[in-house]
Design brief:
With 317 residues, the chain is an alpha+beta fold. The protein has 13 helices and 15 strands. The protein is 27% helix and 22% strand. Helix 8 runs antiparallel to helix 9. One heme C binds next to helix 5 and helix 8.
Length: 317
């Protein structure tokens, strides 16, 4: 498997002062976010921690999956009868909110593992986008092989400072990803890019490099539900020119969950005067205007296209 391995976690060169020396508050807050942990060493993942002590298996008499700790990694064997294949997992994608998907090093290249763990549902299942049922053979059961460009895209959204051979990277979305120029700045040269100092649309598009601004292939509205920048830009609120990601999500923090009062406050900043709004002040604005939408069997996302929702329609436009 040598030559295919996704190995090193890159450290800052020793000569560059760490951001935390001068920005302790931002560094401490950011280290607690899911973005900072969007790629995790396998043994730190919920995927590895929750494995049962029996094999997992596909439905309809398909392949079974056996996992075994080898040093800091997890070896996986897929088997049905005499057909068997092996792979090695070092990294798992996803911080563990809704889904975690391992990357598997196989004989044929690096694959997105066919099995994911869904922490909110507390169960293992077929990775989103893969067909359920039995795999064609043991190699296919390990997962879908990614070509180098797709793998690069995957790492560029879930890791930082990815080298061109993809062998070294800092896991997670770290400072330099949002503040280009910060290393030079840390050495005393210039001011880094600050996404808080650009216009609303520019910031939405900046976050949209990863959170996405383009329609899903085929324009399937339901699939775009996880593309918050694309959805937000469809809303009339966005047309105000003042609404951006950091209006509702403080930098260096996760999204606040189940906090109606916090989000009501954001809406009221622009809508306080309307009779309807005065009447609903104690209600939950996002519950009616930014509902959660189920995507497939395993994921849920918040519709960022703020609008008047019609009952019984999953995705409005
Ligand atoms: C030696 C101290 C020092 C180090 C190390 C340092 N900074 Fe700064 N940083 C500052 C000071 C002082 C300011 C405010 C003045 C300025 O804008 O340059 C600042 C400002 C910033 C700003 C705001 C820029 C703006 O336009 O509002 C960002 C973002 C930032 N730093 C990020 C970083 C990151 C990321 C790192 C690590 C790669 C880092 N800094 C390392 C001292 C430091
Ligand atoms: C380099 C890619 C990248 C960029 C740039 C980026 N994000 Fe993210 N973001 C991610 C990934 C990946 C996750 C998923 C982390 C996970 O749960 O594994 C995420 C998750 C989030 C979450 C959800 C965290 C939670 O509560 O679970 C919020 C909110 C968020 N990002 C906001 C932003 C904002 C605002 C910006 C722009 C200032 C931004 N992101 C820029 C990749 C990125
Ligand atoms: C264009 C950027 C981009 C690419 C490419 C990308 N992701 Fe993500 N990924 C995100 C963002 C943004 C999120 C957070 C929002 C969401 O879940 O859609 C995320 C979330 C996830 C999650 C966590 C879901 C959750 O909410 O818990 C997993 C697992 C994941 N990605 C796996 C992958 C894998 C595996 C690859 C590549 C083989 C990949 N992603 C490629 C941007 C990207
Ligand atoms: C996902 C993108 C993202 C990442 C990663 C990120 N920041 Fe920021 N940072 C922002 C945004 C957005 C702002 C602007 C906040 C605002 O103006 O509301 C900001 C602002 C700052 C500022 C200026 C002070 C302020 O709060 O306005 C500093 C300093 C800073 N970040 C340091 C860091 C350091 C250090 C890290 C790594 C530990 C880091 N940031 C990681 C998005 C990010
Ligand atoms: C930065 C200001 C701003 C913020 C913050 C904001 N909105 Fe808006 N919103 C607007 C503007 C401007 C319009 C368009 C008004 C019009 O067309 O009369 C609008 C329109 C709407 C509409 C009507 C949409 C339609 O399709 O007719 C709804 C519903 C709405 N907002 C709800 C909300 C909710 C709920 C929140 C908080 C989650 C919110 N808004 C936050 C500025 C904002
Ligand atoms: C008007 C307020 C508002 C704005 C603006 C906003 N968000 Fe959100 N966001 C929310 C709410 C509300 C949630 C769900 C919180 C909960 O789970 O209780 C959320 C959740 C998320 C999540 C977690 C996954 C999900 O869909 O539930 C991500 C990622 C995210 N937002 C990214 C972004 C990005 C990127 C932007 C800018 C394009 C943005 N948000 C702008 C209100 C907002
Ligand atoms: C119980 C669901 C519900 C809640 C809670 C709710 N809305 Fe609405 N909202 C609606 C419906 C339905 C409409 C369509 C007009 C109508 O029937 O009154 C609407 C219309 C609107 C409009 C368009 C202008 C208007 O008055 O018709 C805005 C803006 C708006 N809501 C903002 C808010 C804000 C801000 C909050 C939180 C303080 C909120 N809504 C809470 C259901 C709700």
């Amino acid at each position: 498997m040598a030559g295919l391995a996704l190995i090193a976690a890159l450290q800052l060169p020793a000569a560059v002062p760490q951001c935390a020396t001068c920005h302790p508050t931002e560094a401490a807050a950011h280290s607690q976010t899911r973005m900072a942990h969007a790629l995790v060493p396998v043994l730190d993942s919920a995927f590895a921690r929750n494995l049962p002590n029996h094999s997992l298996s596909e439905s309809n008499g398909g392949y079974s999956f056996d996992y075994r700790v080898v040093g800091q990694n997890l070896a996986v064997t897929t088997v049905r009868g005499l057909d068997e294949a092996q792979g090695l997992i070092r990294w798992v994608v996803g911080a563990g909110d809704q889904g975690q998907t391992p990357l598997v090093e196989t004989r044929a290249g690096i694959a997105q593992h066919r099995v994911s763990y869904f922490p909110r549902l507390q169960r293992y299942g077929v990775t989103v986008g893969d067909d359920p049922g039995a795999s064609a053979n043991a190699e296919a059961a390990l997962g879908r092989i990614w070509n180098k460009n797709d793998l690069r895209a995957c790492l560029n959204c879930h890791a930082t400072s990815v080298s061109s051979d993809l062998k070294s990277f800092t896991p997670g979305v770290q400072c330099l990803k949002c503040h280009p120029g910060a290393n030079e700045h840390a050495l005393g040269h210039g001011t880094p890019f600050n996404p808080g100092k650009i216009g609303a649309e520019a910031q939405v598009r900046f976050c949209g490099q990863c959170h996405r601004v383009a329609d899903a292939p085929g324009g399937n509205a339901l699939e775009t539900i996880r593309f918050q920048p694309l959805r937000l830009m469809k809303s009339k609120c966005f047309a105000s020119g003042k609404l951006t990601c950091t209006t509702c999500h403080a930098a260096h923090h996760d999204a606040l969950r189940n906090d109606a009062a916090y989000y009501n406050g954001k809406c009221l900043n622009c809508h306080a005067g309307l009779p309807h709004v005065r009447q609903q002040k104690a209600g939950n604005c996002i519950g009616c205007h930014m509902p959660e939408v189920q995507l497939g069997q395993t994921l849920r996302f918040t519709d960022h296209d703020i609008q008047i929702v019609k009952a019984g329609v999953a995705v409005q436009k």
